[in-house]
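Hi R.,

Here's the chain you asked about this morning:
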Amino acid sequence: MSAVLITGAHGRLGCEISKKFPGALTPTRQELDIRDATGVSDFLSSHKPSTIIHLAADTDVRRCESHRAEAYETNVKGTENLVLASEEVLPECNFIYMSTACVFHGDRGDYSEEDIPYPENFYALTKLLGEFIVKRKTNHIIIRGNFVAREKWPYPKAFTDRFGTYLFADDLAKAISDVMKRDITGVIHIVGDEKISMFELAKITTPDILPMTMKEVDIPLTRDMSLRSVRIPPYKITKSPSKG
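And the predicted structure, written out as tokens:
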């Protein structure tokens, strides 16, 4: 039992994490549908990973609000299927779960691992429920953070009044790999070394990005997602240009 299994390996963070574990199992959604409890159990029984890095999730806040049953099925039941199957088949398996800074209300920011979560939207609620499920595993790490892909901003505008301690996906992948090498379990915040607006973040890869405010959208978004960690030092956000 030596393989690392990465769910959501073909997403923005998953692609970067996969580079840190070149021999990892990186199934597509067709090969491993986390919503299928029997399929999950069969996959774990067959491949016997020693570590599961669980990244697969529906992270679209607007879609999670409008399709709550589907979001719950993926983000909550999918996580539960993985945890229950690993408990049954691989009780010693390490479980790393990517949560979100949005589990906090976002009215003040600067949230530490010791602060009480209070989700603002349904997406964040599903991720928080996933945290409670993952805590059933003895060998678990729950990671909260903010990240985006190091690429051209996917929208014409970015918020000037929404803040976070952001990292790019490649920065976060390196940080997660570092944390996994340490004797750390439980909840941990992996944070960038400065609090910036989403607009400031977008300008790093997309200099011609246009500004906007949160008043221009009708989605219940977390305004201040900034985190700090009482467990590990912050990581420096690498402000290099877009990869293309």
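The longest strand covers residues 94-98.

Let me know if you need anything else.
M.
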